[in-house]
């Protein structure tokens, strides 16, 4: 059994039931998502990719904010994509949001979307769930236009929060197979050097979340 199949089965098992109340509960602790959407600012007529799109919540919010832009969302969980598809149809954005089932770490998984490159690529609390998260970052960067921008928001290292809070949070996240990545900033720096991009990053909410962007100077 390949790692991709194992990951897909794990994510389907985790979200088979959670997907029905995922958005209701996650809004309280997946902080910074709306800031990321506001910062995307894609060009008119552009294309935006979310790797690890889950229920489609971010794609729908972005489609409302940027009415001339096309969106693609990729996720490895069939259950999540079923929920995303329903949500997108309900919101009336099926003509502007394309969903693809696949592994975010596989650069060719997006071929089914019909788009080769994107003006914006973003990850919202997904890298902490993807076992091969470095490969997922590299795959997204490989799909970026030369003048495009890549955004990440995910769990930080809680550096300005009490140790008891960090210990309790990480233990709780671990029960959902979520692992905040202490090496994320270093990996983003490496990608910036490789692709000739500038990295900007900021700790949000006393280190609760990390917000980062890769773009041309």
Automatic annotation (TrEMBL):
Tell me, what's a Pfam family for it? Methyltransf_25
Ranges for domain Methyltransferase come to: 48-148
Q: Which InterPro entries match?
A: CFA/CMAS, Methyltransf_25, SAM-dependent_MTases_sf
Superkingdom: Bacteria
CDD domains listed in its UniProt record: AdoMet_MTases
Q: Which residues form a coiled coil?
A: none
Q: What is the name of the protein in this document?
A: S-adenosylmethionine-diacylgycerolhomoserine-N-methlytransferase
